[in-house]
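Can anyone check this?
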Amino acid sequence: MAKEITYQPLSDIGINGLNTQDNPATLDPSWLTSADNVVLRESGRIAFRKGLKQKVAPSGTAIGSIVEHNDQGTNKIFASHGTSIYTVDFTSPASAFPSSGADVKHTVGSSTGAWQFINFNNRLTCIHEDIVPQRYDGSLTAGSMWAAFDNAHRPSSVTSSQFKPSCGMGFYGRMWVGGVAESKDVIYYSSLLDADDFRTTAENGASNGGSIDLKTVWGDDDIIAIAPFYGKLVIFGKENIAIYNSPATVGAGTMALDEVIQGIGCVSRDSVQAIGDDLVFISSTGLRSIARTTEKDKLPLMDLSLNIKDTLIRNIGQSTNIKATYVENEGIYIMSFIDNNITYVFDFKHKTPNATPRVTTWTFDNDREPASMAYTTLYGLVVGQKDGSIAGYEGYYDADLAGASTYTNASYTGNFSTTWVNLGESVAASLLKRLFMVLEGGSGATLGLKWYKDFSPTPSTTTQITLNPVTTGSTSLWGASSSLYGTTVVTHTHVAATHPSNSTYKPVYGLQEYRTPLTGSAKNLKLAISIESNGFDASLQSLTLLHKQGKIR
């Protein structure tokens, strides 16, 4: 009697994202064992990340920090590069950073560029552990907009001639800073509504700044970062966290210690990001959440990286330069290990079965990896790259700026691997017949397919498919052969806030099924798929295996 053919849909393929922690032989197909240069769409579809399109050409020096600042009602992008801080205009791509101009370039001397930019009281305060704070105020006259901190206004307890905090924030009408070299465990706060004066009332009757000594709170530890959380002041050390209540009343001496969390701290200042009603940060043991349940205050901090825990910890231990940002419109927390060229993307819009965000990774060629990042209202995600360029997160090429407005496009590869899929037979191997793949987009791109049998680390076969999706919207204005513009790509310049850069009208490609024969037999099968970006988006919609029972072996 002939064996029946089995159609085995891989339901919800990869919907939970990357899992490198659990045994891949026991994971169901909703997980991926690798997921690089991809994102997970609303429905769990696996799709390309967008490209990084340069707006400033590379200079060889990494962009240390980026921020969006509202300057007298106009939003501007500021970026640190080498020894200077610049304003950046994305509407006029530049072959290099400007060499002069008091209002677009502020030279601050020797530094790594790793500034913390703080928007406070209509000014931009810039903090760096090797330099006194710098201040930008666009309301002042040209040539006077930038100024260095007046060291006469430093706290009296700081005996050195220079006041150089390494972290800070504006909160409840004051500037809060920490990480001063000679007092790494002390928080200093400014006078009310004056970010440039840290003197106390006793030192100057018009001032009411002060300090908080953390030595009596957590012992010997260094302050790494400061952040607000539900109206409270959160102070991150390397190995401890202190939370204070009522910072609005600090001048009256009524601010009280609310909680001390011992044994868990923060390893990167720039990893601290507010996400909805939560605060996340990188500890030595992974990505953590500081949120509490309403029932109990003393529950352990939630580990958000359970599914990639060991690999993430390994990267934390190997890198001293970690940057992060939260992209609000896409609901993703991006964390870049610059020295290791790996970027983790945590999708907070959708949770896995263990209540953690879904994870994928990004990697980049030619020193394009993010050295700094910021989410902006003007341009969405803005990336300062290791090669010294500044790029927008747009399109489906990693595009190098070749001139004032011309680009050299480079494709990148999105790739992912499934878990080990059991073919349903405990003693008999299944004869592999065919794989059905439904994809959207990816016109002209090359799809590479490998399949692995019965836990072998070596693929049995490798094949390639050229994606040729159908064109949809045949009566549309753009993208149809019979339309006004045919199939030719038409470039449209538009610089409004919601569409800041040139956009391109291209054909819209619909769903297409691809069938490829499979060979051999197996009890368990793993698939690895790679796709070139080629300037077009592409997303996997479904996978279905066709096989039939073979001989017992």
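Reply from J.R.: I decoded it. The first helix runs from residue 215 to 218.
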